[in-house]
Each structure stands twice: as C-alpha cells, then as structure tokens.
Amino acid sequence: MTATESDGVRVIEAEAIPTRYARGWHCLGLSERFRDGRPHAVRAFGGRLVVFAGEDGGLNVLDAYCRHMGGDLSEGTVKGNEIACPFHDWRWGGDGRCKKIPYSRRVPLRARTAAWPTLDQDGMLFVWNDPEGNPPPPQQAIPRIPGATSDRWTDWVWTETVVHANCREVVDNVVDMAHFFYVHYSFPTYFKNVFEDHRATQIMKGRARPDARRSSRGPQMLGNTSVATYYGPSFMIDELTYHYEGFDINSVLLNCHYPIDRNSFVLQSGIITERSEALPGEAADEMARKLSGFIQLGFEQDIRIWKTKARIDNPLLCEEDGPVYQLRRWYEQFYVDVADVTPEMTARFEFELDTTRPVEAWEQEVERNLAAQAAGERPA
Length: 380
Ligand code: FES
Ligand SMILES: [Fe+2]
Known about the structure:
With 380 residues, the protein is of the alpha+beta class. The chain has two domains: 24-140, 3-layer Sandwich (Rieske Iron-sulfur Protein), CATH 2.102.10; 146-370, Naphthalene 1,2-dioxygenase Alpha Subunit, Chain A, domain 1 (Alpha-Beta Complex), CATH 3.90.380. The chain is 19% helix and 32% strand. The chain contains seven helices and 19 strands. The protein has an eight-stranded antiparallel sheet with strand order 12-18-17-16-15-14-13-19. The longest helix is centred in the C-terminal third of the chain and has 27 residues, at 282-308. Bound molecules: FE2/S2 (inorganic) cluster and fe (ii) ion (FE2). One of its GO terms (biological process) is cholesterol metabolic process. Residues 25-127 form the Rieske domain. One of its GO terms (molecular function) is monooxygenase activity.
C-alpha cells in the first residue's frame, strides 16, 4: 500500500477495456448511401467490413477480407447479387458463401466467410453483432419509427463523427444529469431512469438557459421534454419535444454508434421533425437541419471531455448523481455470453433523481452569469 492509499485518497480504478464488442444491433448509417452499386468499406468491431447492395436491392455485410488470399472485397465490384474480389474474381454472396470461381470447375467445400445479419428499416442499415454467432432474438428488434416513413415528418438529417474513446463513455450519458448543465448548457429540472431487459431509458425535462441563449431572434424556446431509450448497447431513440411560447415542436432524435475498435467509435445522430401549423412544409426541414446542428454541437461538447478524461470503473458519486453503477451493470449484459447474463443485469430498475438542490444551485448560477453578462463580463 502506498502512502497516499493509506491516507484515504480515492484511487481511480479501471480494468482493461473488454476485448469483445457488444452483442446487439448497431446502426451503420442511412441505407441510401450504401445503394450506389458499389462496395463500401466500414471499419467496425475491430475489423473491416464490406457493405454492398446486390441487384435484388438487398443490403449485405461481409467481412471485407476474402478467404481465398486475403483480398479486400471493399475494393471489388458488385456483380449481380454478389461481391467479386478484386484479386482473383471469386464471387461471394450476402449469406457469406462463395458462389462461383469463374476460372475454376468447382467451389471448394465450406468456402464461407463471415456474414452479419442485417436489418434495413426506416431508412437505416443495422448489423447484428454477436461474438457467439447466434441470430438476433426477435425481442431485441429495433422498434419502427412511424415518423421516418411519413410525409408529415421530414427526412433524416444525419451526422457522423469519429470519436477517439471507448464507447462506454457515450452510454454513461444516460444517467449523467449534471453534465447536461455544465457541458451542454441545458437546465434539467426533472430526471429519471428506467432500465429493463435490453432497454435503458432516460426521461428528462429541461428549461432554456437565458444565460446561454444563442440569439434573440425568432420565438423563444422555453424548454424541452425528452424520453430517450437505448434499445440494446448502441441505438437510442429520443422522442424530443421542444416547447416554445404557444407551440411545441416534435422531433425524433437518434443517438447511435458503432465501435471501430476498443479505443474509437463512430458517433451518429439522425433527426426528423414533424410538420405542423407552427412548422409547415419547408420550415420543418429547416428546423431539422438547425436542430441537427445543435446536436452536433452537443457531441463536440462531449468529445472535448472524452478526449482527455480517464476511464473510471469506480466513479465517486454524490447523492444528486444518477445511477451510474446500475447503468454499467445493465450495459454489462451485452459483453458476456447469453448464458452468463444475470437477472441483476436485466431486472427492472427505476430511479428518479431529486432535483431540488441542483435546480436551486443552477438558478443561482444562471443569475450570476446573467449579472456578469449585463456588466459586460464573460460568464463564470
Ligand atoms: S483473394 Fe479474393 S479472389 Fe483471391
Ligand atoms: Fe453529453
């Protein structure tokens, strides 16, 4: 034991980052971009994948490295429903089987490569990752998003950003109420989490920050209500309502990611807004683009923190922090074999934070910032 430990100094603990990648559906982005008749390389799950659409329109995801001599299929050509390797033209089907070797009499027995189960739904392409190789269980299906295919709603406005951190950092946000004030300049007034099975929900209400207002033009936003659920380890659907004087704006925000490797991931957002009297026609598309910009800004705020923070398995919490340990236990279910998922990982857990003290403290801080701004100083 070192002198500091005997002095009762809290020591940050962090085990090695898991070598396996989470079991579950992962969104690779809008399906549209994979439908140009070409193969696409995607770095994910510590390897390289090839995504391609066959003549039949179906999207396929295979390991990019050809099992013949290791050629990179993402540099190949789509021929019919198969991907042809650029090295010796072996043809691979979306099921992972070698269908044809043009210069050979027959295909070797068991000529099979890794194929990922795919889901092409609501304009997005998903792959099912499972280190044990089981098919996706129906109860973990990604729910449909009615607005995504409705004319009353805009098309997806999509962003993606490479983040150099382990993806547990983004999942931690689910329970982290206080960072929304300090990092994202929002003002949570209500905060609750519910975890159950493969879902983790965050319910948050917030008010606008007069000390962080970006512009005084147009209608003032009063606050927002957000009901955000992770379906599995990486795909969050947020029903997000912005409250303005006299009207609401309904949006669906997706916050999703897939791991590139243990130390980096692709963070994506998608947003659609509902057309309404307050937001007719083009105005809704404009709003979706504007909100997408805010979301991107929010990601950049998180990324600034993640860039230099330490990985920490034993966070030191105060009473007004959310249930980080329970969330981590929920998240653990995706990193163990199905047979090792314990009831504690999936049991229903509810926790509503008492926001009395944070709200008091934040009101005072907002007042101080406003006073400083009025006096022409920079906010504290
Ligand atoms: S390496 Fe792919 S066909 Fe030879
Ligand atoms: Fe955040």
